Amino acid sequence: xxxxxxxxxxxxxxxxxxxxxxxxxxxxxxxxxxxxxxxxxxxxxxxxxxxxxxxxxxxxxxxxxxxxxxxxxxxxxxxxxxxxxxxxxxxxxxxxxxxxxxxxxxxxxxxxxxxxxxxxxxxxxxxxxxxxxxxxxxxxxxxxxxxxxxxxxxxxxxxxxxxxxxxxxxxxxxxxxxxxxxxxxxxxxxxxxxxxxxxxxxxxxxxxxxxxxxxxxxxxxxxxxxxxxxxxxxxxxxxxxxxxxxxxxxxxxxxxxxxxxxxxxxxxxxxxxxxxxxxxxxxxx
Length: 285
Known about the structure:
alpha+beta, CATH 2.40.50.90, 2 domains, five-stranded mixed β-barrel, 7 helices, disordered C terminus
């Protein structure tokens, strides 16, 4: 079990199935492999939440960003892997390939489905169950895009309940004005929330500004070649001005706190007025 019990979790995904079968319902097995649907038995789960099947194949669950050790929880990654293994090890899973070939580390990116409990005939999505239990954060990308809404909803529920990694203050969402937290988390994957106060453009990039002090206040960078990806997705980056957004990515502190994003999946639009916890007082310059 990841949360209180998979029987309840399975029922929760019935509604999801009605809304989007492809995300909540396992694919039909295709012996010819034309649709990328297959089956295998899980032999092991590591601290990166990767699955090793008994035939040696390694699977990366699309949409899962595994936790890293933190100052208060140096074995957080190991314990998350153990919890997922307690559910999946020795069980048969059904999975759908999200890419035809393995990545450079030999892993197949997949959407995986596993029985909610030993006697349950139905299977639930592994990614949503893991996010719902706080075993990982959502990882944006092409592989997870079709189920992004449901994966984010599962992450939100776990965060609201302070489950798993969300019980660790290190993983709290950072308010855009919280300079102290930025200093502590340089070169790590973070989630930042705040209101875009301005949009600056030059020949190389578009920058979303979260304050008036360039190089000191938080910003989000979108390289010009990636602006085209936003445009193709129907997103006008200039319309982010005045909006409250949540952005996730690697925190770069070399030229002030900033995150570079490459596609719209890395940004969430939030209701006006919603923001992260009040930031700590920033030092005066």
